[in-house]
Amino acid sequence: METKQLQPTQSLWHSPAYQVLLRAGPRLKPLQQVHAHLIVSGSYRSRALLTKLLTLACTAGSILYTRQLYFSITNPDSFLFNALIKASSKFGFSRDAILFYRRMVTASIPQSNYTFTAVIKACADISALRIGKPIHSHVLVRGYGSDLFVQAALIPFYARSGDVVEAKNVFDRMPERTVIAWNSMISGYEQNGFAKEAVGLFYRMRELGVEFDSATFVSVLSACSQLGALDLGCWLHDYIVNKSFDVNVVLGTSLINMYTKCGNVSKAREVFDEMNDRNVVAWTAMISGYGMHGYGREAIELFRLMRSRGPPPNGITFVAVLSACAHAGLVHEGRKAYARMRQDYGLVPGLEHHVCMVDMLGRAGFLNEAFRYINDLKREEQAPAVWTAMLGACKMHKKLDLGVQVAEHLLAAEPGNPSHYVLLSNVYALAGQMDRVETVREMMIRKGLKKRVGYSIIEVGQKSYLFSMGDRSHPETTEIYNYLDELMLRSKEAGYVPASGSVMHELEEEEREYALRYHSEKLALAFGLMQTTHGMTIRIVKNLRMCEDCHSAIKFISHTANREVIVRDKLRFHHFKNGLCSCQDYW
């Protein structure tokens, strides 16, 4: 069931007034002059000319003028409403598109699939779930529930509004699915953090023989980035090359992000160098990739190349550069980059730049300077994230007094954030003040706060496996635990000593060692070593920061098992090989 859009007649297309409108184009001043001409010449009564004038005004970005024009028109018809709703939605005036839709409903003008696709897109763009749901009801009442175009619009609407379940319900009810519908559902899963489901749906798409397009690759590559699924990411890259897809700046940047976040930064650089068109997003992605792997010098060199040959860096570029300096201890280079923000590019530092500066100074041991930096900020700029970076530095350098002072700011700002209490507890523990550790733990219990559950993901044979601490859900649990025990015994013989500061401090020594042994990344590593052949690199993704003990243990295991192990934690990458880590214990 579809309502056809009425179009201007052939005679109108060739009329002088219509030609003048076309010459004016989406430019406000010429449109206003044409508007005046239409009034003087009497052509203002032509609904088709008014509709064209309205859509051009909206295209010009003047929604105020568009509204004025609309309110001057008596008895607007469905063609005018549909054109207006579509133009408002297309050019970012989502709330106005919804307003025009409501006026259309109030005027009892029938809606078509053309109307619904445009207004649902407007709802999707602003994640307006409460507004869009009644419109979905209108869709059903008007008999467009099975319309492919409307259904294809509903999937991203529900997904962007956070209701993935309803998006999947719409998807499942579709009698036939276009590649756009598949892409919308895969993207919906990926953007809501359901990367595993996104990959699963892609496999289903592949099994059914649905042709992929560039949008498919962008979404699935992003899901691979979340999961650390390098094997699938490489398969996608090979498919793109073999099928001669155009690696434009969006797809190229997606490949760069996938490779850097899956641990293969050299391959990411190959993609970057082969791109014909590189915008600021692509440059920033590559600089960020170097930074998260601890390759600060390479990040700085690429930034220098960008400044001389590439597009002007933006605020996000400087976040990537400062973060790279923080992870690599390049304080001098970081200070220079920070100064260039204002001096060379007129950029005003924001929250993320302040966090990077405090993190960089604090990691390098300049705690007093980092603390002064925070105090020099305006009150509204002293956000919890800035104080968290400072507290992390206090823990790293075992500065108890300053750490307690910083923690007071954090707990006052975010009393319900459990990570602040955990970090403060660790500061006390490293200082040997176990009574205060217990006090902090009791505060957490009283407030009902719990630590975030840590988990690790490993990809084996294009399939992702998830492990949590002490996890016994895997069918090969017994074999995994026995093999991990063997690995830890060999590591101890090689000199490994458990870092008991990484666990609850009220446990006995033997209990502490047990609690440490079965952390999620160790279980994932044991499984990976069991399931892969000698010489294959093990890649693990951890949702939290890796603890000191796991970092130490994996260094020893990389030596005793003679394997390269790459771990991506919440903050950065660690490349373990021959008993050493790429971070050089600077993390």
Report on the structure:
This protein is mainly α. The protein is built from 31 helices and 6 strands. Strand 1 and strand 2 form a beta hairpin. The longest helix is centred in the last third of the chain and has 17 residues, at 477-493. It is globular and about 95 Å long. It starts with 9 loop residues before the first helix and ends in a 6-residue tail after the last strand. Residues 1-6 and 504-511 have low confidence and may be disordered.
Give a quick rundown of the structure.
The protein is mainly alpha-helical. It is 65% helix and 5% strand. Helix 20 packs antiparallel against helix 21 and helix 24 packs antiparallel against helix 25.
Count of β-strands: 6
Low-pLDDT residue intervals, each spanning 5 or more residues: 1-6, 504-511
Backbone CA Rg: 29 Å
Biggest sheet: strand arrangement: 2-1-3-4-5-6
Number of helices: 31
For the sheet with most strands, the description reads:
6 strands, mixed
What's the mean pLDDT score? 90
Straight-line distance between termini: 61 Å
**Range of strand content:** under 5%
